[in-house]
Amino acid sequence: MPNVSAQGWMLAFLPVLIWGGLLLLPWRPWSTRERLEADAEAVQAADLSEITVLIPARNEAETIGATLAALQAQGNGLQVVVVDDQSTDATASIAAAYPHTRVVSGQPLPDGWAGKLWALEQGKSQVHTAMTLLLDADIQLQPGLLPALLAFKRREGRQFVSLMADLRRTSFWDRLLLPAFVYYFKLLYPFALSNSRTRHVAAAAGGCVLLDTEVLRRIGAFASLRGALIDDCTLARQVKDAGYRTWLGLSRGVVSLRPYGSLASIHDMVARSAFTQLGYSTWLLLAVTAIFIVAYAGPFISLNSSARPWALIAWAAMMLSYLPILRYYRMSPFWALLLPLSAAFYLGMTWSSAIRYWRGIRSRWKGRAYSS
């Protein structure tokens, strides 16, 4: 068996520290214990008259009907406001056909505003209930999800609760990259820390957020975060900073209808905000790159050496950290073998996001470009 230098042993041992340390963290960022599922039996008795759903919609004709139909099946008394954000398709006319649904015609996007936040700002004056549900136009709630979310919010005494959507997995690229998207989000924003009273971590999933309307007004949203590209986490941060309690969890009852399917579409989704997540810091990007190379490539490099046992331990710990996400989304554990490949693509997409920024484009989404 070939000998290895001290540097070679370090390259083999560092991944063990990284992956072993991750598994031993007391807040368990790899875990799926923070979850909430739909309660179909609660639909018949659900009184949702305290909630207004606020939906920003831009060219969502393919999904808005399914989103609104699912809301109709959640319970009684629910009010819905759809802000048509300058759509060029039939989004507005489809939405207007649903009962208890008001359609607000959005005005042109002012300078300094992100499109989604501008749409929400225009719709908030139509909300006259105690609670507001912020819902993306491509999110379908399974029967009983909203009553379960409302009951959880009351039981836990939270002013802000959100659920991460179950992303559609219809292709190889979806299965390779979308569960890993949730995995990396949880590593970056550990749910247990975000859900605690600490001010150091605040996170949310913007596709489905139920919060007190008064809290929204007191923090000055949405004008106070009008230029934010990661609006959900920014909103959670403001809610926490104001002294309120937040909660974020996974759910299979919040279903994304947006089809990805291709590497290009997933790239666009990730690259629009990946460098923003790093605070546009080149040094942090380089640090993340170094960590990824050591954590994922280190075990491979060390396999054909006397440090092979350490490499195998690191490999096993890496896979073990990914298995809870795969199990939660009912995927084969064999996908864990491809986590290093997923990591390589995510690192590449993060660099792509940085290159966009250096070229003067902070983000690009829904036909709009936001300059850096």
Automatic annotation (TrEMBL):
GO MF assignments: transferase activity
Regions that span the bilayer: 6-25, 172-192, 278-298, 310-329, 335-358
A Pfam family of this chain: Glyco_tranf_2_3
Keyword presence, Cytoplasm: no
Keyword entries, A-Z: Membrane, Transferase, Transmembrane, Transmembrane helix
Protein name: Hopene-associated glycosyltransferase HpnB
Organism: Azotobacter beijerinckii
